[in-house]
Amino acid sequence: MPNFVYGDSCVSGDDKYVIAQFRHDAPMAWVSELRAFLIQDELKYKHFAPQRHRIQGNASLWKRVISGIEQAEITIVDPLSYRKYAFYDFRQQGAEFNHDFNARGVYEQASKALIEFSPLRAAQMYDEDQLFYSGAFPGAGSFSTKEIIRRIGGKHKDAVITAARAHAMISPSEKRQLINLCARSTKYRLEYYREDTAEIIRKIGRVFDVEHAKSVELLNEFSERISEAVGIPYTHFFDSPVRAVSEARSERIDHLQAADISAGWAVDTLLHTRGDYKVLAKRFAWVSVNGVIVPG
User: Fold this and answer.
1) Element (H, E) at 48
2) The pTM is what?
3) Is 132 a residue whose pLDDT tops 80?
4) How many helices (H) and strands (E) does the chain have?
5) Are 127 and 146 in contact (CB under 8 A)?
6) DSSP class of residue 5?
7) Residue 265 contacts by C-beta under 8 Å, 6 or more apart in sequence?
8) What Rg value do the Cα atoms of the chain yield, rounded?
9) CB neighbours of residue 149 within 10 Å
10) H, E, C per residue of 209-271
C-alpha cells in the first residue's frame, strides 16, 4: 500500500491555482483540536480566517496550528504566465491581436503549454518518438496534448487543474528524471533506473478533495504509462481496486481539512505580500511555482 499524500486547493484573486498537500504521516492532532475550538464538524479556511485573532489568543493551540501548517507542501500554477507566453509567441510570429488571433487562441495555446510543461510530458515522449522506440505505450494518440485536453473537459480551467495536480504528484527533479528515462532504451531503463524510478512511482499516490473527476482518470493513466515505460508493474505498488490517484470528501479526513486551511493561508499570504513566493517558502515545507521550486 503506497504512502498517500492528501491535497486540497484554492484559487487566488489573481487566478493562481494553489494546492496544499500533507504526507500521510504528518501529525494531525492540531486539526481536531482546532475543529473543537471553533465548534465545527468540518474544518475549512472560511471558518478559520474570521476567528484567527481569537485562536491566537490561545497561545498553545496557535503554536500547534502554526507547527502543523508549516509541514504543508504548496504547489502553485500561475496560468497568467502561460497566457502571456502564448500572446508573446503569437506576436513574435508577426500576428496581430484581434486580426490574426484572439483571446480564445491565447487561452488554447496556454492550455497546451500547461500540459506540455507539466510532468505529463514524460508520458508523451513516446507519442513523438514512437518510430524510434519500439514497445511504446499502446494507444499513444490517446495521450497527445490535444487528446488530453479534450478528455479532461476542453477548457482552460481543466488544463490548469490537471497540470497543477501533475506537478503536485511529481517534483521538478523527478519530472526531469522521468523525461530522460522515457527517452532511453529499454535495456538502459531497466539496468540503471529501476530503483530510482520505483521510488518515484511509490510516492505518487494522491488523494485530492473532490473537484475534478476527469483529471483523476487521466492522472491514473499517466502513472500507469510511466510504470509500464520503465518496466515496473503498476500493480506492484497499487493493487486493484486501489489506484494511484483518487478524490475523497474531506468530512472525515483530517489531512484534507488541514490542506484546505493551508491552501487558504497560502492564498491570503500571496494577497498580503503582493505575490511574494519567497515569503510562502519561509512558511511552508516547500513551495513550487509552475514546476520550479522556490528557495526558502
Assistant:
1) helix 45-48
2) 0.89
3) no
4) 15, 7
5) no
6) E
7) 45, 69, 283
8) 20
9) 21
10) ECCCHHHHHHHHHHHHHHHHHCCCCHHHCCCCCCCCEEEECHHHCHHHHHHHHHHHHHHHHHH
For residue 30, what are the CA distances in angstroms to 66, 69, 104, 138?
9, 9, 45, 46
Question: What is residue 286's three-state secondary structure?
Answer: strand
Distance CA 206, CA 217 (A): 12
**pLDDT band per the 50, 70, 90 thresholds, residue 134:** very low
Q: Are the CB atoms for 164 and 9 separated by under 8 Å? A: yes
In this predicted structure, the answer to whether residue 210 has a pLDDT above a threshold of 60 is yes
In terms of DSSP bridges, do strands 5-11 and 17-23 run parallel, antiparallel, or are they unpaired?
antiparallel
What are the angstrom distances between the C-alpha of 158 and each of 75, 197, 213, 244?
A: 16, 28, 10, 20
Helix 156-169 to helix 213-229 angle (10° resolution) is: 50
Q: What are the residues facing 248 on neighbouring strands? A: 209
Q: Which of 208, 202, 125 is nearest to 161 (CA)?
A: 208
Give per-residue pLDDT as tens, 47-89: 999 999 999 999 999 999 999 999 999 999 999 999 999 999 9
Query: Is residue 114 within 8 Å of 77, Cβ to Cβ?
Result: yes
Residue 114, CB half-sphere, CA atoms under 13 Å: how many? 34
Give residue 13's Cα distance to chain centre.
19
Here the cell at position 75 is: 504547489
The answer to whether the beta carbons of residues 75 and 119 sit under 8 Å apart is no
Which uninterrupted H or E stretch holds 76? Answer: strand 73-77
Q: What angle do CA 96, 159, 10 make, to 5 degrees?
A: 115
Cβ atoms of residues 291 and 117 within 8 Å: yes
Number of residues assigned to the chain: 296
Residue 37 pLDDT > 60: yes
